[in-house]
User: What shape does this take?
Amino acid sequence: MDRRIATREAYGEALAELGAENPDIVVLDADLSKSTKTEIFARRFPERFFNMGIAEQNMLGTAAGLAAAGKIVFCSSFAIFAAGRAFEQVRNSIAYPALNVKIGASHGGITVGEDGASHQSIEDIALMRALPNMTVLVPADAVATRILVRAAAALEGPVYLRLGRMAVPVLYDGGASLVPGRAHVWREGRDLTFVATGLMVSVALEAAHLLEREGYRVGVMDVHTIKPLDVEALVRAARATGAVVTLEEHTVIGGLGSAVAEALSEYHPVPVKRIGLPDTFGESGKPQELLEKYGLTARHAVAAAKEILARKG
Amino acid sequence: METLRETRIARLAAMARRLRCHVIRMTGEAGSGHPGGSLSAAEIIATLYFDVLRIDPARPDWPDRDRFVLSKGHAAPTLYAALAERGFFPVAELLSLRKLGSRLQGHPDMRKTPGVEMSTGSLGQGISAAVGMALAGKLDGRDWRVYVLLGDGESEEGQVWEASMAAAHYRLDNLTAFLDHNGYQIDGPVGEVMSPEPLADKWRAFGWHVISIDGHDIGAILDAVEEARATRGRPTMIVARTTKGKGVSFMEAEPVRWHGTAPTREQMIRALAELGCPETIL
Assistant: This one.
């Protein structure tokens, strides 16, 4: 867990790698290529990179047109602008006609840090998950990012890929195999399952480790694909452990926690506790300080686990 | 030579009238829709589909076809009528407009209707898609061209100007836009609701080659398209002055009312008679 790489960094490198293999890959950015790391692709394939300026609505629409003409389009900005500002363009020009556009949205969540709440997307998973035809991917680390970027390119249709600004621990080894739509089970549990996505997977692993020292056997599952949700794996974990704690760097409304609660209440109801932003905007601060303030650390996960274990009885 | 051109224009004028007949019949049958702005675009769409566009109804996915994007998607009846008359699907299907299970949605759906290049209807979005298509054509070094039709009310959308900027920035001379400048939107005259004027000057300032014409003058449309094709290094905007509800006197007289209201059966019969539609259209 010593190496730390931001998922946006892995995204930029994976794009460049894909670009070398597939001449149909085209990349768009909205004046943030240095931050989203599409600049790595831009340097290698300048003729297939288009900076669309600070105009996200047109960027998403242009991506739709390129895709309609046969291109595989990766389109990047901060999550707040790609999913938020251009939401209706994503809906009507991309999701509705099911066009082959991959939205590589960086700076998801509060670990954007010092820029503050205006730039911290806490609701993008909820927005994108609500769209028919949309696949929603949230890689936990650099390895998962590389795998999921390639999977997104191979998938026919729209994909939303949520990436982070902050360097996060590398969890998977290079040979890992992740399949979109299938949750990755890190460890099986008996007492409780942590169901996490994005950078919260490493938090869940840490918390599970802490709980193990107290004698609990806690499962950890990486739901890198929020949609389509791996309901089978969730039901299996709920059946085996009887309690679930979800962890996401996102508002508890509409994201992973909601998706899991929806699925379990329908197929196998067990006590569920959602860890995420409690219906509030973020603020400026260092990423680690924000995670601490808003309850997104292993310490908080342990406390939530104990609360739910008590409820479970 | 002049006779050839006259014959060509007469043929397109007859088709524009035919499209109008379909529009009235379709919206009347559907009981809803947007006849006003569908009628104003009849000459532009007839000229594109029956003279300008390099398309093959037998191969709607032919990679080297020209593309047309109806950015003002509410004029879908005119587009559908042109596609049917051109052979993309049976003319009889036109009467299924807006009905449950129909391939002819209230606004264009590229996945449902053969020949529809882009799903549009949410204003301002079609032109961005057209920019993307034109970029793809340039990227692949192909000679197919992209045409897009915008409304004047639609020009109030900020996205239109984002797209306009991008098209000029990337020197998309394979992109030709038409502005169906009929002067009215749902809530009233465009100039009273939110004036986007001076439109021709704005497009010029954004780096486009701009041609102003009478949008019902087919000869002028043909000449403008020729000029656009010959223009290098920048996209062309053809500002077409049109009349909302064109061809139907009571619609021309009340353009705001007829933006989004379908004719009753009685009004439909009156309109069809005025347009001189063939009996078979009923």
Notes: Chain A has 13 helices and 14 strands. The mean pLDDT of chain A is 97. The domain at 4-169 of chain A is CATH 3.40.50.970 (Rossmann fold). The longest helix of chain A spans residues 7-21.
